[in-house]
Amino acid sequence: MIEFRKISKKYHYDEFSVFHDFSLIVPSGVATVMFDVQSGKTTLCKLFLGLEKLDGGEILWDGQVVSPQLLRDRRVSYLGEDALLFDGKTALYNVAYPLLVAKVKKRDAQIAAREALGEMGVEQSTALRKVKSLSAEEAAKVVLARLLVKRPKLVVLDEFWQSRPFCVDETLAVARRIGADVLVLTAYPRFAKGQTQVVFGGDVVYEGDESGAAKALEQVLWLNEKEV
């Protein structure tokens, strides 16, 4: 469980606060936090990952204050719109990379990477090709194979599916396989999965099943336009 407890954040160049005494509890398992465009999605993600500093409040993960060390120990994988692959390197190298960083022997890392790519249906010949020559579907399989070898405890999906709608089910299947929680951050109702919360204007305006998220966002946008 991730808890954003009375967090505040304001950028020095902006007149308005992105968050002010904002609280949100994200349950374990598969969960979605959905935002309207420019309602704080990227900021919330950066705050959790430690890429931005809080002005107030705290962020807890299973009762522990989130810190760079905690994120490293618990292994968080962030997947954004960009795949964050090394385009000039082979698919095999990209999948083996987290193991090489962890000081696993090169031979063992390559064996594990080949197995993971095989599980994702990537042929050996494709594994030796550079990522920049792969199709979008093949590159997505490389990203998911890397999850198999890294085995994170949490996968944060920040519009990862927007340009890869073909791999929604595969992503969730991989997460189940490795026992990872999934946090989906999106502005698109069609990508909401699991327990879903909709944030608008710095407040949680909906909490419930993914099927009700689209209607909830539509209603709050309609009310907002009516007030304007």
Describe the protein's architecture and organization.
There is one protein chain. The chain is an alpha/beta fold and 228 residues long. The chain folds into two domains: 1-75 and 152-228, P-loop containing nucleotide triphosphate hydrolases (Rossmann fold, 3-Layer(aba) Sandwich); 85-150. Helices cover 38% and strands 25% of the residues. The protein has helices at 41-49, 68-74, 91-101, 106-119, 124-127, 136-150, 168-178, 213-227, and strands spanning 2-9, 19-26, 30-35, 56-61, 64-65, 76-79, 154-158, 181-186, 195-200, 203-208. Strands 6-7-8-3-9-10 form a six-stranded mixed sheet, with helices on both faces. The chain has a four-stranded antiparallel sheet with strand order 2-1-4-5, covered by helices on one side. The radius of gyration is 19 Å and the shape is globular. The two termini are 37 Å apart.
How is this fold's topology laid out?
Blueprint: E1 2-9, E2 19-26, E3 30-35, H1 41-49, E4 56-61, E5 64-65, H2 68-74, E6 76-79, H3 91-101, H4 106-119, H5 124-127, H6 136-150, E7 154-158, H7 168-178, E8 181-186, E9 195-200, E10 203-208, H8 213-227
Parallel strand pairs: 3-8, 3-9, 6-7, 7-8
Antiparallel strand pairs: 1-2, 1-4, 4-5, 9-10
Helix pairs in contact: 3-4, 3-6, 4-6, 6-7
